[in-house]
Amino acid sequence: LIDKPLKQVLAKPDTSGRLIKWVVELGEYDLNFKARPTIKSQVLADFVADNTPMDCMEEDPSENERGLWKLSVDGSSCITGSGVRLVLTSPDGWTLEYALRFEFKATNNEAEWESLIAWLTI
To answer: Which helix (H) or strand (E) holds 87?
Structure first.
């Protein structure tokens, strides 16, 4: 129901009035706190690998005629925020650059995953 143990919430009454109201209301029931499990990065990598359609992985016979495009991805995080930069380079050397700033705090690893998602939506 909440992501903090009831005892911890009751020990700090200034945290949130509405939350305390619900804690008091639900306190008569035998509720136990169970921490939310964290998702490891390897699980996300396995999910992407398992759910990528095989036809996307087959080589297009006309690729050699058109040439290959190169995608460079940079996801980064710092104290002032986090973001991602994508650079798409054509076989002729023409480049498209795309950058976005996240509206949330992220670690470097999370920024890398968000850059992958941004690439998939382009």
So the answer is: strand 81-89
C-alpha 105/C-alpha 79 separation (Å) is 9
pTM: 0.34
Residues 6+ apart with CB under 8 A from 58: none
Residue 74's Cβ-side half-sphere holds a number of Cα atoms within 13 Å equal to 7
- CA 122, CA 108: separation in Å to the nearest integer? 21
Residue pLDDT, tens place only, 98-108: 777 766 666 65
Domains defined along the chain, listed by start = 41-121 (3.30.160)
In the chain, the amino acid numbered 32 is: N
